[in-house]
Amino acid sequence: MNNNLEVVQANNIKIDNKINTFYNPDNIYIPLYKGMKLNKDKDLNVLKNELLLKGSDFNIYSPISGVIKKIDDDIYINNKPIKAIVIENDFKEEVKKKKYATKYIDDLEPSKVLELMNKYNILDIPLNPIAKTLVISGIEVDPFERNNTFIINNYSAKILETIDALINIFHFEKTYFCITNNNSEVVYNLTSNIGTYPNIKLKVLDNSYPLGLESVLVSKLLTKKELKWKYNYLTCEDLLNIYRILKKDNPISEKLITVGGNCIDESKVIAVKYGTKISDIIKNNIEITNDKYLVVENGLIAGKVLSELNNIVTRNTRSIFLNTKDTRKEKKCINCGLCMFKCPVGLNPKLIKDGKGDKSKCIHCGACTYVCPSLINFKKYLGDKDE
Amino acid sequence: MNNTVFIRSKISIFTISLVRLLSLLPFILVGIYLNTFKINNINLFAFLKPLTYAFVGLIIGVLVNLIFTKKNKKDKLSDILFSSFHIEYGVILGCLMSPSVSLITFSITLLILFIISKLIDIKINVMALSFIIIYLITKYTTSFNLVERIATSDKDYLIGNITGSLLSTGFISYLIALFILRVNSSSKTDISIYASITFAILTLIASFFTNESFYELVFINSYLFIFLYVASDSISSSYTLKGVKVYGILIGIITFSLMLITPILAPFIAILITSLFSTVIDKLSNKFLKKKLT
Ligand code: SF4
Ligand code: SF4
């Protein structure tokens, strides 16, 4: 029986491979997390990639060149207010000259690779050098996002080179590159390029939601033994970032985000600077066709409505959608069992709704709400993923 | 704000019913053939009668939904017509009727029971209850023989070479319909599979001890069809992954136990009884069957 959940995509989600950029907002906002210190004395001019904030766990570099203006406390991440340093853009993209550049990244020592990754803090979970398996995901988290697709279509050579280098450096025994079968361009692109990398095993999986989530993908892909041995999980965007820092020893200053929804003229993938305000992205890049929209971050199925457009782009921002609500009324449950059948972690959302089920394992993928024929909104009962 | 829904699947009672109704086509086509050409009875009435039940069932389903659905301005016609599964119930019951059942008995009983089921919120299999009542009324009011099927070889069972209702059409139609329903990811098909397998195993065992043929026991009285369409009714059956399996097994066992007493009603009584306990079955099977049946 097929318990895959296929999400039918809207027509306006066709995205071309053109690189759209938005590198020139007037200001960039750098979150001032607790315990961080400004790495500046009197001179308030900053260069792109210059170390700006020092913290105990990680540092933050400036994504643009400009002048530090003030501290703004009306800035949000995940709808939560934060303090942020405001850098006024001088639009020069001035960079401190640096000599370092590696021609072949697979010549690097493991310690150097780990050092660079750590220095620029590019992964949420640091690479585990003793794990035996490497899982690469080219699958979108939300079916309406196109970040990984876009990266594969534009940078497949760089990505494959990086994976090959990581395998050679850390001696991973098994490497899986996972994509889904619904995206013919991606399948074609990788199948025609992967031949020269015999160590990388391409896995073309049936398209289903929420396969783009790490826990769901690895539980479908890896055996119990492979899970026990520990694995490394990287997205295509992680790989592109690794490639860039290994080549140039520079911090990552930009992020790819999908911009879409039924209230704009066309969807696209845009490269924006970290710390860009969502309102600036909307104002400068999008033609709005319907004013009755809400702004949703990170997916139409499981995303979050932004209560403030003063939210900024961080490493965890994948997409922004300008979309109308589905206002249809809930009906009586018809007992079809689809909510439970499609739940990737085997919960019983119907029972949770009645206050009787355990929701502790819920990964907030939204599949149950998406699939329910009676339009029951389980999000109300499952709580917020950030809680 | 984070409870806002932006996008939903297209699955609805309409789409679920549509798939189930379309999957009936192989049964209906073979059924028409068997009830007309096969028995050399090619007059218009004989040709139309089996289909008439299904059509009348459909109309009664439509009527009941039109009358008893609260209408909103935004509702599409398909939302109103398919506000419940009554259209599907009507057509399936129509397909189950033997040509010897009076159309008037069928229509009136169906209308009354459908209205009651709309008014009273009780988890009971409406199709099974309706069939039992129509059967009993027919049995005690007419002298017709309710079952007229002749099978001459094993092949007859396979292609359904027997007369009777539209659905006495054999194993191949069943497999086609099961395939259609299963690829449309209905977890409820598990009910049918588990009921059929349990029933087949029990009859196989029984056939060692009796002179009854195994084929005959499994394929008589459209049992497979009943397990596939009546037992898997969305509203009244169990819905959890373990529950549907236990529910199916119980139907198989009860049908087998009742088969010798009342072969025609056995699966319907089994389904009626289990439907009354579907919630309990869900609860208990999830409590006691930890991992085994998933
Ligand atoms: S219960 Fe949680 S994990 Fe399961 S489908 Fe719903 S949102 Fe996803
Ligand atoms: S998916 Fe919706 S209608 Fe189906 S059992 Fe779950 S809550 Fe009920």
Question: Your description of this structure?
Answer:
The complex is a heterodimer of chains A (387) and B (294). Chain A contains eleven helices and 17 strands. Chain A has 387 residues and is of the alpha/beta class. Chain A folds into three domains: 9-90 and 252-324, no CATH class; 105-248, 3-Layer(aba) Sandwich (Rossmann fold), CATH 3.40.50.11540; 338-381, no CATH class. In chain A, helix 3 (184-193) links the parallel strand 10 and strand 11 (200-205). Chain A is globular and about 65 Å long. In chain B, helix 3 packs antiparallel against helix 5 and helix 13 (241-259) runs antiparallel to helix 14 (266-276). The radius of gyration of chain B is 19 Å and the shape is globular. Chain B has a single domain (13-293), classed as Ammonium transporter fold. Chain B is mainly α and 294 residues long. Chain B starts with 12 loop residues before the first helix and ends in a 6-residue tail after the last helix. The model of chain B is unreliable at 146-154 and 156-164 (pLDDT under 50). Bound molecules: iron/sulfur cluster (2 copies). Residues 333-339, 350, 372-374, 376 of chain A line the site of one iron/sulfur cluster.
